[in-house]
Amino acid sequence: MATPHVKVVFEVMMCGVKTQTTMSFDTIENVLQYIGQSTPLPSIIGLDLPMTPQDFLDIDRYLCTSKGTLRELRLDMDVPVPGQYPCHRRQPVNAHSYPALVSLSVHGFVPTTLDSSFIHLTHLTLGDVYSQTPPLWRDQFLDAMKTWTSLKVLEIEEYNKMIQVPESSRLVTLPRLEILKIKDSPHWASCILPCLDLPGLRQLHTHRTFADLPWGGNMLFWVPPLGNAVTRLLHMIKGVHIEVAQDVYQPTTISTTGPDDRRVVLTASVMAPMTRWHQWQLEVLPSIMLAMANVFPQAATFNITGDFATMGKKTWTGFLKTYPELLELHIRDVGHRDGRPLFLALDQSELGPDDRVLCPSLKYISMYGVAQSRELLQEMHNALLCRSDHNLVLDHLDLYPQILAEPDSDDLLEELRSDIEDAVAVFEYKALNSY
How far is CA 344 from CA 9, 212, 427, in A? Predict the structure, then answer.
């Protein structure tokens, strides 16, 4: 028996009430047979259809009974034979024929009617455009985008068949676009993104898009003109979720706590899959954090994973000055480094009359994996006392240090932990053994 692969959402009017049913079929012919035997006659409002080249020629026949009701359509072209274009041309998907269509997902080919036939769409996905598919010129795509005035969500996946003419200063505005997702499409991004004006953008998701570096990473703000284009877009955003994959293992994420909240949460992760790029990781970690300040100086929370060998007191001081509204700082140190530099920066015992207390709103610090030491606890305590002198008290401090050798009994450790408990509202401590 063939595996069901055609998914259909039917809508039926019974006793004045509309009901919806989702079903799977082996073939589109079985769908038509089911419709012909059904009473009352159901309408197709959603269709997920893997197709062959011949199917494209007959799509209007397949959907003739549902042109006025179809709201969601997904077309998935089978992988073509190398060197053979699907039907030797880009395929027509004429949304004029489907006035109710609001969501269209097209995979495996490039529709020819990307322009005015999409004026009612709110959700569009274009992806998996294979190398055998004839490409579009960049300006063809931009001309089409000008008509997408209702579009709210645009998803681009593995779309790299585009011919780029010399750099253009033109801008295309998508006034209602709220979510833009770009995955594995560096060519599309480099052609199109610098030309977009997205005043309503709230979420930007990217994955392996901005640069194909030799070690599999990519750098959002260091690839002109993409870096400038993204920075320009982000300055317009009321709230944003950015997911920029540094490599296949560790994404960099920024997200808002509310649709109109300019405060953001940044997760900066610089772990590369190959240890020979270790030094690159260490150099780029502070750069990522400082570069983000150009876009979001009011970042509220940082979750940072990395090796902190180069993060000394001076670097931490510069970082804390860059983000004065910081509320939470969560650190996961994969190199089991000395955790003192952060608290050395926070210990402003010698604060001058013209100096400001760093991060006065800071309420939560967590550290995971830093090396256990009496000196770390002592510096934590000093920093907490210093901030207390300025009427600044942490609400929560978590410490999960790594014990790298079998510890000796040390009453001073217990005394220091007790002192820290007295200086912070909530103190959670748990040592991690690695010996």
Answer: 61, 38, 19
- Are residues 381 and 326 located together in one domain of the fold? yes
Query: What's residue 273's pLDDT?
Result: 33
Q: Give a yes or no: residue 376 inside a domain.
A: yes
Asked whether the bond before 225 is cis by omega within 30 degrees of 0, the reply is yes
Give the contacts of 251 (CB within 8 A, at least 6 positions apart).
207, 243, 244, 245, 267, 269
Alpha-carbon span 245 to 189, nearest angstrom: 15
Q: CA dihedral in degrees (120, 121, 122, 128; nearest 10)?
A: -170
Buried b (16+ CB within 10 A) or exposed e, 48-86: bbbbebebbeebeebbeebbebbbbbbbbbeebeeeebb
Considering the domain architecture, whether residues 424 and 361 belong to the same structural domain is answered as yes
- Beta-strand (E) ranges in 128-178? 136-137, 153-157, 162-163, 172-173
User: How far are the Cα atoms of 90, 146, 154, 242 from residue 121, in angstroms, in the given order?
Assistant: 20, 13, 10, 24
- What are phi and psi for residue 332, nearest 5 degrees? -120, 110
Last residue of a domain, one of 270, 298, 326: 298
Partners of 251 in beta bridges:
245
Report whether 162 contacts 141 (CB < 8 A).
yes
365, 327 Cβ separation under 8 angstroms? no
Domain extent, residue 268, equals 226-298
| Contact by Cβ (8 Å): 65, 41 | yes
Q: Divide the 435 residues of the chain into consecutive groups of 10 and give the mean pLDDT of each group.
A: 63 70 77 72 70 56 64 69 42 60 78 61 82 65 85 87 63 88 78 81 64 34 43 50 40 40 38 31 44 57 67 84 83 78 90 81 91 89 92 92 68 83 90 68
In a shared domain, residues 368 and 242: no
Question: Angle, to 10 degrees, between the axis of helix 313-322 and the axis of helix 278-293?
Answer: 30
d(CA 101, CA 75): 13
- Residue 18 · residue 12 · CB < 8 Å: yes
> What's the number of CA atoms in the CB half-sphere (13 Å) around residue 329?
21
